[in-house]
Design goal:
Layout lengths: L8 H13 L3 H11 L12 H19 L2 H14 L5 H14 L5 H8 L6 H13 L3 H14 L4 H13 L3 H14 L8
């Protein structure tokens, strides 16, 4: 890392990755923040999109290590928006959302992540899970409905909604939710 030119964007990114690996996320974030201040066009890496994705991914990893999981999620979302086919930011986001959904003290954070129109179906699903854990079944039902409104193919949200409906004596509605899922996913045994 000492051989890297810290004044070049690629050098800063590589150094930030090293700091993250050494469990020094504050130093990594410092370097990543200064990337946007550089004369970017004088030193463009060969693949700008991959570079931008990597900056956001390293930012997400640093925020995760600092315990700022909400900012880590937002960095993952920015990375995913830059390169939707790259899986690492999406996987990190799911991991963090799962982590948040098992901690009932994170309800406010999950709500802020799940409620904007730009939020994903998965965001709403994990928020619903956290609400179930907190015993807020009616709010969880709304979160699972929100998840399905964003992505009708979200099987986990569909199963969770059907379970809530059946547990609250709305068996016919639960059957309808599952039947709608079977019409979308003809070969998914989890919905039968």
């Amino acid at each position: 890392a000492l051989e890297l030119d810290k004044n070049q964007p690629l050098g800063r990114l590589s150094l930030a990755e090293c700091y993250n690996n050494l469990n020094k996320p504050k130093k990594a974030l410092e370097l990543l923040e200064r990337i946007k201040d550089l004369d970017f066009f004088s030193t463009i890496p060969l693949n700008v999109t991959n570079f931008q994705y990597s900056v956001e991914l390293q930012r997400a990893l640093a925020y995760e290590k600092l315990g700022d999981l909400e900012q880590a999620i937002y960095a993952c979302k920015r990375a995913h928006k830059i390169c939707p086919n790259f899986q690492q930011a999406k996987d990190l986001s799911k991991h963090i959302l799962h982590q948040l959904s098992t901690d009932t003290t994170s309800l406010a954070t999950l709500k802020r992540i799940a409620e904007p129109e730009s939020a994903s179906s998965e965001d709403a699903y994990y928020y619903g899970n956290a609400l179930v854990q907190a015993g807020e079944v009616m709010a969880a039902e709304s979160a699972f409905r929100l998840a399905l409104s964003r992505d009708k193919t979200n099987i986990r949200a569909r199963r969770a909604l059907a379970l809530i409906l059946s547990k609250t004596s709305r068996v016919d509605e639960a059957k309808n939710v599952l039947m709608e899922g079977l019409n979308i996913h003809k070969d998914v045994p989890d919905l039968t």
